[in-house]
């Protein structure tokens, strides 16, 4: 007879593959598809020329000439994700081609209908979000592993740097994601040694995420980010430039409102917060919960599964184990430091960049509607400081 501890008898409660989480890439799509089948050539052709079409103000006219394609020839998740990526980039370009004052109020049917259908199939909103901008938007340029984006927007090397540094933060989190699954298993098995090791792994991974984020300074020019790139991450919810939202022609006669791309749509910190038992303010929690609707469904389910797991904090407190307590606090401390560093980055790339743009000639007319707000629509500094402070409050006092 097999022992009770065989893998058949006691499977890991959080088998990553069940939630479309990769052992190697975490929440990133492993080796995303780069081309859609031939019938979708008109989409790919426009998507690959977005920076040029936007620079020459020709994107909208090109979209108007685009045939309305059926989505029924798209097969499997990879093709659906690439279609969502392509249509979301074309959509944000179409809406913001003429800047804030000239934002489009109606998305034409030949773009709106297929984008809606693909979004429904994936359980994602019909707008450019973190999954399109980063998770599904990377490729290897050559066998040695140099990375590049699949689809781009204006912003040149700074845009490329912004996407790829964010991707490196996602990659750095992978050992931490695996550590969460191992720690939950260790709690259920009452294996304090394995739990201690998993908590050390998690703290190390969060530290590596901060180091990856620091590379932003080397690859992204604050002036280009603020005046050129940021508008394309803006949504049509809680945005004074589009107070009524956007009409998706052929889908609904009423305008619909969706938040823009935001780091709050990354599953990583949601998973870590739930695991570490961090409770944010009511307002911050409401915003973060809303951002979960912008994650792929399986990733959302992963966070919900962590919520249902036994409480790590309660386990550590009741164990009375000083080593576990210290390892737990190291995780909290690393996460608070990551959030502090994120505040420093936002200060440089938004507040300071906004002041400089107002003071002198800039690469382009800076957007004003979202000054002081995140692209997801949150009041950015009060939100980031609030979640950093509530993270610190999660510490176990000696």
This entry's quaternary arrangement is single chain
Find the CATH topology: Methane Monooxygenase Hydroxylase, Chain G, domain 1
How many domain modules?
A: 1
Q: What is the top-level CATH class?
A: Mainly Alpha
Mean pLDDT: 92
> Roughly what percent helix?
55-70%
User: Which class do the helix and strand fractions yield?
Assistant: mainly alpha
In DSSP terms (H or I, runs of 4 or more residues), the helix count works out at 17
Which of globular, elongated, flat, extended, rod-shaped describes the shape? Answer: globular
Pfam families: IDO
Keywords: Dioxygenase, Heme, Immunity, Iron, Metal-binding, Oxidoreductase, Tryptophan catabolism
Protein name: I23O2 dioxygenase
Family: Belongs to the indoleamine 2,3-dioxygenase family.
């Amino acid at each position: 007879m097999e022992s009770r501890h065989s893998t058949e008898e006691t499977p890991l409660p959080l088998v990553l593959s069940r939630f479309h989480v990769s052992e190697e890439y975490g929440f990133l799509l492993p080796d995303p598809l780069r081309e859609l089948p031939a019938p979708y050539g008109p989409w790919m052709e426009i998507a690959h020329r977005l920076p040029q079409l936007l620079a020459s103000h020709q994107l909208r006219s090109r979209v108007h000439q685009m045939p309305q394609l059926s989505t029924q020839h798209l097969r499997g998740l990879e093709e659906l994700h690439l279609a969502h990526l392509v249509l979301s980039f074309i959509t944000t370009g179409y809406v913001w081609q003429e800047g804030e004052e000239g934002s489009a109020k109606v998305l034409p049917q030949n773009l709106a209908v297929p984008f809606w259908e693909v979004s429904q199939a994936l359980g994602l909103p019909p707008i450019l979000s973190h999954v399109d901008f980063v998770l599904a938007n990377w490729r290897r340029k050559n066998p040695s592993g140099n990375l590049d984006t699949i689809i781009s927007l204006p912003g040149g090397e700074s845009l490329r740097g912004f996407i790829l540094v964010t991707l490196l933060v996602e990659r750095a989190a992978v050992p931490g994601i695996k550590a969460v699954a191992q720690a939950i298993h260790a709690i259920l098995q009452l294996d304090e040694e394995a739990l201690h090791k998993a908590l050390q792994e998690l703290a190390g991974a969060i530290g590596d995420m901060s180091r990856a984020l620091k590379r932003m300074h080397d690859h992204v020019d604050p002036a280009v980010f603020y005046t050129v790139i940021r508008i394309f991450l803006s949504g049509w919810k809680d945005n004074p430039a589009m107070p009524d939202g956007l009409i998706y022609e052929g889908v609904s006669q009423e305008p619909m409102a969706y938040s823009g791309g935001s780091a709050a749509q990354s599953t990583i910190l949601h998973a870590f917060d739930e695991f570490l038992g961090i409770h944010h303010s009511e307002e911050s929690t409401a915003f973060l919960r809303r951002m979960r609707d912008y994650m792929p469904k399986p990733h959302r389910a992963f966070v919900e599964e962590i919520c249902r797991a036994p409480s790590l904090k309660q386990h550590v407190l009741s164990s009375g184990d000083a080593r576990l307590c210290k390892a737990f606090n190291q995780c909290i401390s690393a996460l608070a430091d990551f959030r502090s560093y994120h505040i420093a980055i936002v200060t440089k790339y938004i507040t300071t960049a906004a002041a400089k743009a107002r003071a002198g000639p800039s690469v382009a007319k800076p957007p004003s509607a979202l000054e002081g707000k995140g692209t997801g629509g949150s009041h950015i500094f009060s939100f980031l400081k609030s979640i950093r402070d509530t993270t610190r409050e999660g510490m176990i006092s000696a």
